């Protein structure tokens, strides 16, 4: 056992011995670096960010707010729909009427028809594995329009923007993507006064929302309990404006 890598008393590696039988070498760079970091954090504590630089908000963060989406405004021209019905007589009409493009790619309509059939048979979980260029976005868009209630989730903001640009779906982004209108300086909504003010303090944001109606505010949406939520004034926080658009539209486009 004399050649063992482990301490017979504590069972740790000899170099990490905690019982004192073996003295660990703490002069190596990794240990020194860890100790320095710990000392640094302990010294500053809660004030370690007090001298941080102001947040600089890029113009790209202040994303535009789309109008409330209306499916009827994004239908294909009737002559295109009629042509597609003639070209694809085996495809259900509802699929063609909700397809977003004038010319489908090979196999797209057939895939949608297979998925629609599986849903009608009661399948709850359907996985589509298709190669690049198949047009999975158009397939998802068609199904979302058909059933008028869907969450479209993307892995990246880039893909989310692609859905929004190609299919005009309104999208939902986090608070960090919008400038705070109340604070009046370069700070995003995730660091705005409505998020940082103590809950015990009386706080009012003229751009935000409230459960109580005001003389100048409109109904924004209903919460998950069915209660009305109102804007405080006619000037709306951009974060809450995009939330209103999404809540009032059955399809939601977001990042997971």
- Number-wise, the strands total 5
Computed Rg: 28 Å
The structural class is mainly alpha
The strand order across the widest sheet is: 2-4-3
3D shape:
flat
Q: Please write the string of helix (H) and strand (E) elements.
A: HHHHHEHHEEEHE
Helix fraction by DSSP (H/I, runs of at least 4): 25-40%
Straight-line distance between termini: 52 Å
Query: What would the average pLDDT be, to the nearest integer?
Result: 78
- Sheet-strand content, in percent, reads 5-15%
Tell me about the biggest sheet? Answer: 3 strands, antiparallel
Number of helices: 8
- Unreliable residue runs: 24-69
User: How many domains make up the coordinates?
Assistant: 3
Short description:
By secondary structure, this protein is mainly alpha-helical.
Verbal overview:
The protein is mostly helical. The protein has three domains: 1-27, no CATH class; 71-167, no CATH class; 179-236, no CATH class. It has eight helices and five strands; from the N terminus they run H-H-H-H-H-E-H-H-E-E-E-H-E. It has a three-stranded antiparallel β-sheet, covered by helices on one side. A two-stranded parallel sheet has the order 1-5. It is flat. The two termini are 52 Å apart.
List the helices and strands and how they pair.
Layout: H1 29-44, H2 78-87, H3 93-98, H4 108-120, H5 136-147, E1 150-154, H6 157-167, H7 193-196, E2 209-210, E3 219-222, E4 228-231, H8 238-247, E5 251-255
Parallel strand pairs: 1-5
Antiparallel strand pairs: 2-4, 3-4
Helix pairs in contact: 4-5
Which features characterize this protein?
256 residues, mainly alpha, 3 domains, 3-stranded antiparallel beta sheet, two-stranded parallel ribbon, 8 helices, 32% helix
């Amino acid at each position: 056992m004399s050649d063992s890598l482990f301490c017979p008393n504590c069972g740790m590696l000899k170099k990490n011995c905690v019982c004192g039988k073996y003295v660990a070498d703490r002069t190596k760079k990794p240990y020194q670096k860890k100790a320095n970091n710990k000392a640094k954090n302990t010294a500053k504590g809660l004030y370690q960010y007090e001298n941080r630089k102001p947040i600089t908000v890029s113009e790209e963060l202040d994303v535009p707010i789309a109008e409330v989406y209306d499916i009827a405004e994004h239908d294909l021209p009737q002559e295109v729909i009629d042509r597609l019905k003639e070209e694809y007589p085996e495809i259900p009409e509802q699929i063609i009427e909700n397809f977003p493009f004038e010319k489908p790619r090979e196999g797209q309509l057939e895939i949608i028809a297979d998925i629609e059939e599986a849903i009608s048979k009661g399948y709850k979980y359907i996985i589509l594995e298709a190669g690049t260029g198949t047009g999975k976005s158009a397939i998802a868009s068609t199904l979302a329009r058909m059933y008028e209630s869907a969450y479209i989730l993307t892995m990246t903001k880039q893909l989310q923007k692609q859905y929004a640009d190609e299919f005009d779906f309104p999208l939902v982004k986090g608070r960090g993507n919008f400038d705070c209108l109340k604070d009046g300086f370069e700070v995003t909504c995730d660091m705005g006064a409505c998020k940082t003010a103590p809950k015990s303090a009386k706080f009012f944001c003229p751009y935000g929302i409230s459960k109580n109606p005001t003389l100048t505010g409109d109904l924004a949406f209903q919460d998950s309990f069915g209660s009305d939520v109102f804007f405080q004034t006619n000037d709306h926080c951009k974060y809450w404006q995009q939330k209103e658009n999404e809540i009032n539209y059955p399809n939601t486009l977001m990042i997971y």
